[in-house]
């Protein structure tokens, strides 16, 4: 599992880490609206830590991957927010 996460981190176009409930971009760039939505979702869903990875696929689009401590329902909200800002 650790190797999988290392590989994702090394190939990710962007990485957003949630620390103490506050998402921050620690690699790459994301739209300010997406980051604002991440903050709101994390606040509302009480997410205190986690990581969101933006990984470019073979066809050029970026898909999101998540660390295990971001629940499935929250992942869907973040995916919806991402799709609004791409």
Structure description:
With 86 residues, the chain is α+β, with helices and mostly antiparallel strands. It has one domain. 44% of the residues lie in helices and 29% in strands. It has a 4-stranded antiparallel beta sheet, with helices on both faces. It is globular, with a radius of gyration of 12 Å. The chain starts with a helix and ends with a helix.
Strand and helix layout:
Layout: H1 2-11, E1 14-19, E2 22-27, H2 32-45, E3 49-56, E4 62-66, H3 72-85
Antiparallel strand pairs: 1-2, 1-3, 3-4
Helix pairs in contact: 2-3
List keywords for this structure.
alpha+beta
Summarize the structure.
Helix content is 44%, strand content 29%. It is α+β, with helices and mostly antiparallel strands and 86 residues long.
């Amino acid at each position: 599992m650790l190797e999988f996460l290392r590989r994702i981190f090394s190939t990710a176009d962007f990485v957003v880490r949630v620390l103490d409930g506050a998402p921050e971009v620690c690699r790459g760039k994301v739209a300010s609206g997406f980051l604002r939505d991440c903050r709101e979702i994390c606040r509302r869903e009480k997410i205190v830590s986690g990581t969101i990875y933006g990984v470019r696929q073979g066809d050029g689009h970026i898909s999101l991957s998540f660390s295990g401590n971001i629940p499935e329902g929250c992942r869907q909200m973040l995916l919806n927010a991402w799709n609004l800002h791409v």
